[in-house]
């Protein structure tokens, strides 16, 4: 009999087959060779069942039916991929051994475990655990397969994560939704992340800016000009500031202190996924999900980087030789000059900033593979460029500077000057020129402004007099905290909301952050999908619905649901389960107890006024200005869409009690769905929501009520007739357009008169 190899996705399966069975016959959903049959899972083929799988009564959301605490969780096939699941089952009957070749991580382990459970696969299982999809790695991986039992703790952690999310999400979402009669999505990870954004926005809104005055002096000594900043308590009196400027202008001074020290800046650490997402957001404005998708394509399709969903910034001894070979490969690439000028001797097993096996868990840092890049899209090239430049920087020496600190005294007033004199760029030659002067982000913005970077030699004579050529006063204002971008939010998620600049502390918090590198992007997308946050350029802002959700949760007395630190501790416990250091059963008991406390506290909470959920006018404007970039991410929002469709399509309106209120109004536009749209209390949802259709059109959009006739136009013609809209900045005409037939997302198409 043959060995069945189960990969996570088709591309991975075909890549593996090309190595272990190069002459395998392609049967569309699997490849078969002399010794192996290779097939794939297409991601999650199975998931935890919805509540109504345990009892029909759960089809309707009633507070009285809570809590829902299954004794044993049921799993159900994804209806869209059930044929592939059936194929795996049929192939397994012809094989006496199985190789789990799903992604080498927690989620990949879970995907395989559910398939094994559902199909009752009894064959002995080996585990392929590799970090890149090059032929060399695949062959080496198959030559050194692991026993599946070695990963049982990781499987237990994956099950615990999934079941804990189900318990909190299903119970808390139903509790808050039925209590306040508005669909409110609550989750173990998403809610504390929303709380981070909410708290930052409240800080910004309550910030009281203080006006202060900065005094700058232009100083000269022996034809060397430099600028000093007045030292003293923050000056808030304009007249006093002007008096100091007048006092020193044109006067002679002296150097009271002068200190010079040599400093070095070492390369930034190799990328883990979160650091890559942060840099791609800062430089290119890419969302976390977009960067993950691009990195996954570079790994899976192009095979030019290693496994991207890693939590590590380091490599092991075994990777050093591969790094040297990758450097050699880059000598015949567009990075030729940087690669040829690199020093291979700088990357070795004793370089702890690169090689630190104790900091490598499941996967090493993101590295280039030995395969040369072919044709990449511009966005793929941008992400690849980040990885390559970060990789190459470790083959260069540190950047070297002379740090000059000068204190000049004029008429009893002290002026400070900080000059950073560049001696050698070192590794910074690997950075694009426009980013070579950027610091490490350890200093506050105000301090950074006081430091001047110069390329030419700088020298001051301590005993020579100084002339104050000019002095001027600049009015300034203290700045509020910055709104989160996806990049800075990822940083906060990684440290469970704690402001950590020290790299050692950052490493220590990695197993206690919010979510994992592989799930953080999905969490941010989910917050967008359920309408809790919106994007204003790069900035993330909380919607009215998001604000109300956090306030209701906190007022209910379940602040722990919004606590980043608490959720970070849960993530730490999941990590401990994966290492065999904690028991899954105890963790789940704690989650169940917490679930019960949520229900008890929401039960006695007063019902919120409906006006608290109304969209503010500025949010409407923001939504109108968003274009196709805001299209719903169907993968991350699937459960939310099911709940949304269920709430919109199955709850009868108290006013629409006639028998016709549940009559089919139009066929569902979602391709291949076959369902019908019916009228619910707040929207028009699809009758096939249980089969996974998330299509829903809300009755209120951009201040207009979507009537049944407008619904018909949207479904059949893709747009409504021309409508008039009133705005403070002026009236305008527009059509409401069905922008996404998968989700029911609407947009405005304005007509310029």
TrEMBL record:
SUPFAM superfamilies, per the entry: Prokaryotic type I DNA topoisomerase
Regions of compositional bias (Low complexity) in chain numbering: 644-661
Family statement drawn from the similarity comment of this UniProt entry: Belongs to the type IA topoisomerase family.
SMART domains recorded: TOP1Ac (SM00437), TOP1Bc (SM00436), TOPRIM (SM00493)
Domain called Toprim: residue spans: 2-134
CC per GO annotation: cytoplasmic replication fork
UniProt key word Signal: no
Keyword Transit peptide: no
Catalytic activity: ATP-independent breakage of single-stranded DNA, followed by passage and rejoining
Topo IA-type catalytic domain location: 151-599
Protein name: DNA topoisomerase
A Pfam family reported for this protein in Swiss-Prot or TrEMBL: Toprim_Crpt
EC number, UniProt record: 5.6.2.1
Gene Ontology molecular function terms on file: DNA binding; DNA topoisomerase type I (single strand cut, ATP-independent) activity; metal ion binding
Residue span of region Disordered: 431-453, 616-664
GO biological process, one term: DNA repair
Keywords: DNA-binding, Isomerase, Magnesium, Metal-binding, Topoisomerase
Superkingdom in the source lineage: Bacteria
